[in-house]
Design brief:
single chain, 325 residues, alpha+beta, Ribosomal Protein S5, domain 2, Alpha-Beta Plaits, 2 domains, 8-stranded mixed sheet, 12 strands, 31% helix, binds cytidine-5'-monophosphate
Length: 325
C-alpha cells in the first residue's frame, strides 16, 4: 500500500493466490463446505488506486465510482477477449466499499481505478483480493482506524477467501469455509507457471460436482506439506500438492483436463489446479525452465499463460522476477 504525495490517494497491490492443498471435509447445513486448505500469495497482482471524490464535480459525495481496465500478462495473447468486468454494485470492490460505509456510517465516497491482471473464474482469488485491498485502503483513506481483526470480520461477510487477503502472511492454512486463518511459514521462493483454459469454472458448480462424486475417503493430512514448506524444500512441496476439487472440475471442463495432461508431459516437480479452477499451475525448478515451458504452453490454443513467483512481504525473498512486469 502506498500513499500518493497529495495525501488524497492510495495505491494498493492485490495479489493472486494459489491453493497448494485443498481438502473438502464435508458439506455444512448452510450450504458451504468445511475446508482445510493451504493458500499462498503470488507476485501476480491487480492494482487499485483509491481517491476521494472531488466534490466540485457535482457528484454525490458518498458515491463509489469504479473504473476498470485489463492489462497483461494473461490477456495479451488471448484468442478471445476476456470477459467484461462489471463496475456496478455487483462488483465485490463496490460491495466492500458499501459494507464499510454501512458499518461505520461514513459519508465519504471514493473513486477506484482497477488494473486487472488476475483472470476471473480462475481459482486465483482475484475478486476476493481486490475486495480485501478495498477494505484496507478505504479504512486508511477515510481515517476509520478499524483493526485488522475488525476488517477480517467484514471480509468474511464478502466471501470465504477474502480474510486470507486481509492477513499479511504469505502463506496460511485456512479452515472453516476458508475464513479461519492460521499463518504458516514458507521459506524460499520458486517460479510458478499459471495457465488457464479458455473457459472458467463457477465455484458452486464445482462444489456440487464434488458432492455428487464424494465417497467416504479418509481426509488427506496437511502436515507433511507444512513441514516441507517451512524447510524450504521446493521439490517436496511440489510432490505434496493436492486438490480434492480437481477431479470434479476436470469432469466439468474438458479443456481443463487437456491442459492438465499437457502440463504432465513437461515432467515438472509438481502440477495442480488451484481452488475451484479453472487455472492450473506448475512449480518449476528454475526461472529458465518456467520461461521455456510457458512459451510452449502459449502455442496451445486454449491457454492463457504467465510466469510468476510467491509474493513474500520481505523483499529479500523475492529473488525471481515475474515475466509480466
Ligand atoms: O464464499 P464465496 O462467496 O466465495 O462462495 C461462493 C460459493 O462457493 C458459495 O455460495 C458456495 O456455493 C461455494 N463454497 C462452498 N464452500 C466453501 C466456499 C465456497 O460450498 N467453503
Amino acid at each position: 500500500m502506498c500513499h500518493w504525495p497529495d495525501g488524497q490517494s492510495i495505491l494498493a497491490r492485490a495479489p493472486a493466490k494459489l491453493n497448494l492443498h485443498l481438502e473438502v471435509l464435508g458439506r455444512r447445513d448452510d450450504g458451504f463446505h468445511d475446508l482445510e486448505t493451504v493458500m499462498v500469495k503470488l507476485d501476480l497482482h491487480d492494482t487499485l488506486q483509491f481517491r476521494t471524490i472531488n466534490t466540485d464535480a457535482n457528484v454525490d459525495e458518498s458515491s463509489i465510482q469504479l473504473d476498470c481496465r485489463y492489462s497483461s500478462p494473461f490477456f495479451q495473447s488471448d484468442v478471445s477477449s476476456p470477459p467484461p468486468i462489471p463496475v456496478d454494485e455487483s462488483n465485490l470492490i463496490v460491495k466492500a466499499a458499501r459494507l464499510l460505509q454501512q458499518t461505520t456510517g461514513v459519508t465519504q465516497g471514493a473513486h477506484i481505478e482497477l488494473v486487472k491482471r488476475i483472470p476471473v473464474q480462475a481459482g486465483l482469488g482475484g475478486g476476493s483480493s481486490d475486495a480485501a485491498a478495498t477494505l484496507v485502503a478505504l479504512n486508511q483513506l477515510w481515517g476509520l482506524n478499524y483493526s485488522t481483526a475488525e476488517l477480517s470480520q467484514l471480509a468474511a461477510q464478502l466471501g470465504s477467501d477474502v480474510p486470507f487477503f486481509i492477513d499479511s502472511s504469505t502463506a496460511a492454512v485456512c479452515r472453516g469455509r476458508g475464513e479461519i486463518i492460521t499463518p504458516v511459514t514458507i521459506r524460499g521462493n520458486f517460479p510458478v507457471i499459471l495457465a488457464q483454459p479458455g473457459s472458467g469454472l463457477s465455484t458452486p458448480t464445482v462444489f456440487k460436482k464434488w458432492s455428487e462424486l464424494s465417497s467416504q475417503k479418509a481426509c488427506r493430512s496437511v502436515e507433511p506439506l507444512l513441514e516441507a514448506m517451512s524447510s524450504g524444500k521446493t521439490n517436496s512441496v511440489a510432490r505434496l500438492l493436492f486438490n480434492a476439487l480437481q477431479i470434479p472440475a476436470e469432469q466439468l471442463n474438458a479443456q481443463l483436463k487437456q491442459l492438465i495432461s499437457l502440463f504432465q508431459k513437461f515432467a515438472l516437480p509438481g502440477t495442480l489446479m488451484t481452488g475451484s479452477g479453472s487455472c492450473c499451475f506448475g512449480i518449476c525448478q528454475s526461472f529458465r525452465q518456467a520461461t521455456s515451458i510457458s512459451s510452449l504452453l502459449r502455442t496451445a490454443p486454449f491457454s492463457r499463460v504467465c510466469v510468476t513467483t510467491l509474493h513474500h512481504n520481505r523483499m529479500h525473498h523475492g529473488y525471481y522476477r515475474s515475466t509480466y512486469q
